[in-house]
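Troubleshooting: if your tokenizer reports a length mismatch, compare against these two reference records.
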Amino acid sequence: MVKESASAARAVKEASGVDWVSVGDREADICELFELASHEEVSFLVRSFHNRRVCEDTKVWEVVDREAPVGRMRVFVKEKDKRERVAELEIRFREVRIRHPKKEKEEVRLWAIRAKEVSPPKGEEGLDWKLLTNREVRDFEQACEKVQWYTVRFRIEVFHKILKRGRRSEDRRLGSLDRLERCLTIDMITAWRLMYLTMLGRETPEVASDLLFSEQEVEVLKLIKYRGEYAANKGRSLSLREAILIIAPLGGFVKGKGREPGVEVMWRGIRRLADILIGVSLTTSIPQFDSG
């Protein structure tokens, strides 16, 4: 799967003009990937699993630890209980030449970055990300850029989770590949919208809700929020944060200290919002007859 990801990045790189990077977790720390990336000129970033040799008696992370820290950066991380916190990471890096485990005379030129949490919360294991990349790292800013790339991997997992649990894309039985591809295209757009909505709700909660919702959806959200006082608040704008806090309870979210709506409750909430929108549309379109 790792090789397929790198090959896919190579296939689309020139066609789109976008700078593509294949990002992988610890299972991607294999020499075959390093060789493939070197031959096909594919950029990659992986989390290290093996402490590989750089010379006869020295290994890569021993060499990196001798370097002085170049600075600190902060990242958002999610705990197992779904709480989010900010972690402060101390950054070290250096260029290394890793020896091939089976071909003694061959070396792979990479950059190694260690991002280790400075003061993790009491009782919790701190972050310690050891990253390898074939993209050049010459200063603190470039090292932080690569660490930030790795954090995006978690969003990819969330995207796949929405496809599997929300859209149930794996359960499709459509009879042909062509039909499946068309359906998956719709599923991916829906999953992207949901993930983007949840992400922006946390990072930029003050933006206007009409950035992601139609005019009809915003008005229905106001109806839910203000109920009997809708007429008096009809002209008011609704922030994205306000919209999310209306939708999340529709999906079963219970507000609590430190809790934020996740993609699952937002998915259920949006589905209910769609049903409510249909109901409102039908109500307003039904002719009103004089009972007299």
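Reference record two:
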Amino acid sequence: MMRTTVPPVACVGEPRLTAGFAEFGRLDLPAHEEVHGPIGPMEPAALLRLAEAIDLKGKGGAGFPFARKLRAVLESCERQDLAAVVVVNATEGEPASWKDKVLLTRAPHLVLDGAALAAYALDAEEIVIGVADDDVGRPSLTEALQERRMPVPTTIVTVPHRFISGEGGALVNGINGLPHIPPGTKKRSSDSGVNGLPTLLSNAETYAQLAVAARIGPYEYAALGTDDEPGTVLLTVTGAANRPAVVECAAGTPLREILELCEVPEGPGILMGGYHGKWITPEAADRAEVSRTGLAAVGGTLGAGIIIPLPRDTCPLGEAAQVVRYLAGESAGQCGPCKMGLPDLARAVDLAVSGSAPVEVVRAAAGDVKGRGACSHPDGTARFALSAMEVFAEDLRLHATGEGCGKRVKGVMGLPGAPDANPRKLTLDWSRCDGHGLCAHVVPDFIRLDGNGYPAFPATPVPTWLREGALKAVKVCPELALRLVKAE
């Protein structure tokens, strides 16, 4: 179930973004200045050199180089003779992520410092900060804006707490008064974003990292981390963790150290990078380092810094299927891969998990959406589904027998709402069944006819999206042989 309070914060090694948390809790302006020290404005060339020197990449998931964004906006402003807008994306639409909310609630001035640096360098017209309507970060951010003077007018815009609301184009649309969904065609906000002006859009943690680097300089900034990825990383560790937390660590920290800090028990797999991320095995977790390259080396991804380990007593494939269904429902529904392809992918995953179809149907459905969407949502969802099929291949083999893995789905993935509290499965009274076959015609995705013309279906619970069809199948059975009963 989705959390409603900000999780605890922990640190491995030297704190930077989380500095002062232990002493002050939330850093108001005097505490912020005491912990981090003064900061002054920077000219465009100096800010560009800094961003390039620390190889600052976006912390929202895509990892796009911040310096390239900044340069693109500067060039666009000059080419079009227009003012710029700076946008801070703190929407954090993914339910499992909490790192940006932690920054807003406990270190809001660090985020505002980074936005102010960018606004001064761009001679921006406005700063806009996008937050979710869950009301977690807005009160602290509002208080911080009342405590200080920003270089340009700064406003807070609230967007619906949906997965796709945090996509860059969706946030720009929402700020412009349009529906909070990605634009139907790909366009660069650096050319035309908020109010049609060149727009610098980046994640809240990215601006906070920029503020830290501006204070300590590129050489001290690179004292932590790796040669390729200097600095620290914020991680949200949830799922099976006995001590869920937002953790700051240097890039290159062994993943096992993070898992031990959060008291993560052994389980079947760990999702890295969030719902658009990839699964890794426990063995891979033992070798992995917390960095983009380190996680890619073991088949994972850093993404938005989300780590969701599974407990041993849940069905990993069932957990994955719930997420795919959620992602299919979170689509904008404006292009074919999202509107039709993602429901098909969710259906394929459910069929594979129930043992009604081979894994090839998942691969085919994923192939139909990859690279074809108006935004990255279809690609991310396909990546998640295919990764689950690969990492949990042994569980898939057990499910293919029709018996399943013997574990219920506990719902530990951080999805909004609770897992299916009343799972149901089909049963058949063989003394009544005459093999009419009507049930297979009503719900062919779950019931098929065997070689003798009698219905065959998995012993696992009926997927929620097929529940209505299963009820119809029960009603049309002329011999009253089919039943929908509680799954134990």
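Descriptive notes for reference record two:
- The chain has a mean pLDDT of 89.
- Residues 236 and 424 are 33 Å apart (CA to CA).
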